[in-house]
Specification:
Layout: H1 9-38, E1 45-46, E2 49-50, H2 57-69, H3 83-94, H4 99-111, H5 115-124, H6 128-140, H7 142-146, H8 156-159, H9 161-176, H10 183-195, H11 200-217, H12 222-235, H13 240-256, H14 261-278, H15 283-292, E3 298-299, E4 305-306, H16 321-329, H17 332-348, H18 356-363, H19 365-368, H20 377-392, H21 398-422, H22 431-443, E5 449-451, H23 457-464, E6 467-468, H24 477-488, H25 491-511, H26 516-523, H27 529-539, E7 550-555, H28 562-567, E8 585-588, E9 592-593, E10 597-601, E11 604-607, E12 612-615, E13 618-630, E14 636-642, E15 648-653, E16 658-662, H29 664-667, H30 670-676, E17 685-690, E18 694-699
């Protein structure tokens, strides 16, 4: 029995609305904790507002900016047709706040809408109380909060909300079995597909679940096949207006031709199913499986094998059970109760079977990566809420039962509150870094290219309005290879590949080819990139004609991920089974000088009297020692000592309080030479901005 059930329908409606408002305000208030923590920190502000805290957000912000400007450059990859960019541009014209404030708070405002479909699902099943408790929990659970917190400007703000509205529409149609509830199904799925095309797999899984539901439980009930038909229409790979037009036409047919309904229905059903396969079918699903389930090296048409970015993304890796449970429910105990409650809820309320695809996709996270846990949050929250109802059912006094429910709900919410207090994700860049990018934007042209690692591609395009070789969405192995190569190879090699990579990228847009490494090797008759460099150096071959300026962006923050950057180019492109031993790199800001030695952590220490580096039980000679720092004029001072002909090199970055232990490969890399030492070949590069946090060099070849 629903303890929140009231006798009169209009009172019930008002009470449901009140619960929605309470849950929504609760969700918003939890997301304001991050704002309150960072509000007084000027280093995280731009244009008098806190900056966003996700790299991908700058991609969509770029699109919205260009929509408002009314123009953008050819091949700049600006997402002017992305739904989130379109929505942001539209809102910025009607909401009286500046652009930075809008993109900062949109995730919280839209992400908190998750409480509405959850409460409505509960209400449809006659269990508003379950929906309310589940809405509170789902809105702040680790996984969902992390991806809809204030500042997390990304499609995730509606990626779960819209499918839940679609599931609510299905449950509503199952419960009431009236034709008037069919159109909302198509609309909800069409919006879901429009907002997040990658939801195609989930939507198809919901379709299959609904069909199985009909075949197993309602085989002779014609209405359930109508529901499936309107789901199919909603997920067709067609423009939204066409899908809605088809749905309206079929709805009108059902409404006005009831007598002919079943006579013509199956022919219509087969026609729509055929259209589904004709417009895509399962091909998009297979593409997603290859990207997230099969994460080995990838190869191009020329037989070159590259490193797959999914192998380095934590979101796409295996996760332990404890983290898995916390991401979905906030705590392992809550997770177990939620799972048991979910099974019990399905047995009690059969329409909840439609949520199984959310559970399935969420549980794939155990092997496919933690990013998928977000999908299981809502149904598991419903399961937990139902379990609470079962546990408290023996309590006869209503007021006492409500108190017990409040206490247990609070206990379940508390770990999530603690997580929110601790999860203080900083902004993507600091104000000082943004000032460098804005200054660079005034010195460059919109057709110029910046080469850096893909993590920084979107912010650079947003603040500097230039093109990038790689970014958060354009980072396949073939594209990451030249970016990695340019950053970790010596300057001569970097300069040659930088020019070729950019020019071949632009050519690729013209002839619709993206395999730039294969194109370069073919053009210069080389088998490997090393052969290509050697051929260019020995023959003085003419490089591709320069059509634009190219810059290297070298930020301090790249130092911690430099070994990961190296993985993408330090490999055998012809033989993926040839696992090369990676060069040595170690950096730390946590060290202790005891006089005789410097402890660097993780079993590494510098033994001063021996001029040795201790690596666990092994001792390696110190080849060279460099102390680098800024003087009073903010110029680089370098003091170096040489001890041995072989061994590892120590770099003490005094102004940063950081030690680097590197082999010769890294010591001679463009990144270390040009960022740490500010040493560059004047024939190849010239400095543009030399800031302690970010350094920009212009290519001269």
């Amino acid at each position: 029995m629903d303890i929140f059930k009231l006798p009169k329908e209009h009172i019930v409606l008002r009470f449901t609305l009140l619960l929605i408002v309470i849950a929504y305000l609760f969700s918003l208030s939890m997301r304001y904790i991050w704002v309150a923590e960072f509000q007084g920190m000027e280093q995280f502000k731009y244009n008098n507002e806190l900056m966003i805290n996700t790299n991908d957000g700058y991609y969509f912000a770029e699109g919205a900016r260009d929509i408002l400007a009314g123009s953008h450059q050819p091949n700049d990859l600006s997402p002017i047709n992305e739904p989130i960019s379109l929505l942001t541009a539209w809102l910025s014209q009607i909401v009286p706040v500046n652009f930075e404030t809008l993109i900062l708070y949109m995730p919280s405002i839209f992400g908190s809408l998750i409480v509405i479909p959850i409460i409505l699902i509960g209400r449809t099943l006659g269990q508003t109380g379950i929906g309310f408790i589940a809405a509170l929990l789902a809105s702040v659970t680790h996984s969902y909060y992390n991806r809809t917190m204030t500042g997390y400007y990304d499609t995730d703000m509606l990626t779960i909300v819209l499918p839940l509205f679609a599931i609510y529409a299905i449950i509503l149609a199952i419960t009431h079995q009236r034709n008037r509830f069919l159109l909302p199904i198509t609309l909800a799925f069409a919006l879901t597909q429009w907002w997040y095309p990658q939801s195609y797999s989930l939507n198809t899984a919901i379709l299959v679940t609904t069909l199985l539901y009909a075949l197993i439980f309602e085989r002779c009930n014609h209405h359930f096949y109508k529901i499936s038909l309107f789901i199919i229409i909603g997920i067709l790979s067609l423009p939204m207006w066409i899908k809605i037009a088809i749905a309206l036409a079929i709805f009108a047919f059902f409404h006005y031709k009831t007598a002919l309904d079943q006579k013509w229905f199956w022919g219509l059903f087969i026609a729509i199913i055929s259209l589904y396969f004709f417009t895509g079918g399962i091909d998009p699903i297979w593409g997603q499986l290859k990207g997230y389930v099969f994460r080995d090296s990838v190869s191009d048409d020329a037989g070159l094998h590259f490193y797959n970015v999914a192998q380095t993304v934590r979101e796409a890796g295996n996760i332990p059970f404890t983290i898995f449970a916390e991401r979905i429910s906030g705590h392992p105990i809550t997770f177990v109760l939620g799972l048991l409650g979910y099974v019990a809820a399905i047995l009690a309320y059969r329409p909840l079977l439609i949520t199984l695809p959310l559970i399935g996709l969420g549980f794939i996270a155990m092997s496919a990566g933690l990013r998928f846990t977000i999908y299981a949050v809502a149904p598991m929250a419903i399961g937990f809420a139902y379990m609470l109802m079962l546990i408290t059912r023996p309590i006869e006094k209503g007021w006492l039962r409500v108190i017990v429910l409040v206490v247990f709900s609070g206990v379940a919410l508390y770990p999530n509150y603690l997580h929110i207090r601790e999860y203080m994700t900083p902004t993507v860049f600091t104000a000082k870094e943004v000032s460098v990018l804005e200054k660079f934007g005034t010195l460059s042209n919109t057709e110029d290219y910046v080469i850096t690692w893909w993590d920084y591609g979107y912010p650079i395009r947003y603040y500097s309005d230039v093109k990038t070789l790689v970014d958060g969405g354009k980072h396949s192995g073939d594209i990451n290879y030249p970016a990695s190569y340019i950053l970790v190879q010596p300057q001569q090699n970097s300069a040659l590949i930088a020019r070729l990579a950019v020019e071949y990228t632009e050519k690729g847009y013209e002839n619709n080819k993206s395999a730039i490494i294969a194109e370069m090797l073919t053009a210069y008759k080389a088998d490997t990139v090393d052969d290509l460099i050697l051929n260019l150096q020995l023959s003085n071959a003419v490089l591709s004609k320069s059509t634009r300026d190219i810059y290297l962006y070298l930020p301090l923050r790249m130092m911690d991920i430099l070994p990961t950057v190296t993985l993408f180019s330090y490999l055998d492109l012809k033989n993926p089974d040839n696992k090369l031993q990676q060069p040595f790199f170690y950096t730390t800001q946590q060290f202790q000088d005891s006089g005789k030695s410097v402890e660097l952590g993780n079993g590494l220490s510098i033994i001063k009297e021996k001029n040795m580096i201790k690596l666990g039980r092994e001792e390696v000679p110190i080849k060279s020692f460099y102390q680098v720092g800024y003087n009073q004029e903010q110029k680089i001072d370098i003091n170096e000592q040489h001890f041995a002909s072989e061994g590892l090199n120590i770099i003490f970055m005094a102004s940063y309080g950081r030690f680097l232990i590197v082999d010769d490969f890294y010591l001679n890399s463009s990144y270390i030479q040009m960022f740490v030492f500010e040493q560059y070949d004047p024939k190849l590069f010239e400095p543009v901005i030399l800031d302690p946090l970010s350094k920009v060099y212009k290519l001269k070849v």
